[in-house]
Design brief:
This protein has 2 domains: 91 residues, no CATH class; 74 residues. Helix content is 64%, strand content 0%. The protein is built from 13 helices and no strands. The longest helix is centred in the first third of the chain and has 18 residues. The chain is globular and about 65 Å long.
């Protein structure tokens, strides 16, 4: 074999040998480390935010639920009921959050309203939703619950809630809690206890029915507290 041909052959053999030899990293059992990538936090969609707010409301966390709504709908107080389905859902959650926090929504900024102003706004918003969805027991229960918080609308709230309970159409544990308070104020101890029992049977969290402590502070409702404790 000519020297030049032999050199060419050796070069070819060497190239194949190099191709078959594993890399130093693999030979030593080392893995290749890539530079860490920066994780970008994706904000949940408004649909998911409203759904999460609804769940928080069911768990007895109204202020947290209100903040969740504001994260996607900063101008929720100015939204018109029935105009947009998702915004109407958000409006309902925010209004009920105000009701279940007894008007005490410490949200800061331009969201700082007085207790009475929050409750009056909530009643008006839930009335508008009721007008857009007439004869809906769930919406009626929401409105009755809100009306029960204000002295000048309590009678109307009682009529709505008691009527739904009599027909077994009340789908909200918080509405049963509101009815329990109203019955206690009227001196209807057995009726108040029954409404409270229904609330406790339906609620996802005991905090939902805990608002009745307000009624228990009333001397006229101490018998309700004793009756419930005895069960």
């Amino acid at each position: 074999m000519k020297p030049t041909s032999r050199a060419a052959s050796l070069a070819i053999v060497a190239s194949f040998a190099l191709a078959l030899v594993p890399s130093a990293a693999s030979a030593c059992g080392m893995s290749v480390r890539l530079a860490p990538t920066e994780q970008v936090r994706v904000k949940p969609s408004p649909v998911l935010e409203v759904a999460a707010a609804e769940k928080l409301l069911e768990q007895g966390q109204p202020v947290v639920a209100a903040r969740k709504v504001l994260a996607s709908f900063s101008s929720i107080r100015g939204e018109e009921a029935g105009k947009d389905p998702l915004k109407t859902r958000a409006l309902r959650v925010f209004a009920l959050a105000a009701v279940r926090a007894d008007g005490n929504l410490a949200l800061g900024g331009n969201q700082t309203w007085t207790r009475v102003a929050n409750l009056e706004w909530a009643v008006q918003s839930l009335r508008e939703i009721d007008q857009k969805r007439p004869n809906d027991p769930a919406v009626q229960a929401d409105l009755g619950e809100a009306l029960a918080r204000l002295p000048h609308t309590k009678a109307e709230g009682f009529k709505i809630l008691d009527g739904l309970a009599q027909k077994d159409l009340m789908g909200s544990p918080a509405a049963y809690a509101a009815l329990s308070r109203l019955r206690a104020e009227k001196g209807d101890t057995p009726g108040a206890a029954l409404a409270m029992k229904r609330c406790e049977g339906m609620a996802a969290s005991p905090a939902v029915c805990g608002a009745t402590k307000t009624a228990a502070a009333d001397p006229r409702s101490t018998s309700v507290t004793a009756l419930l404790a005895a069960r």
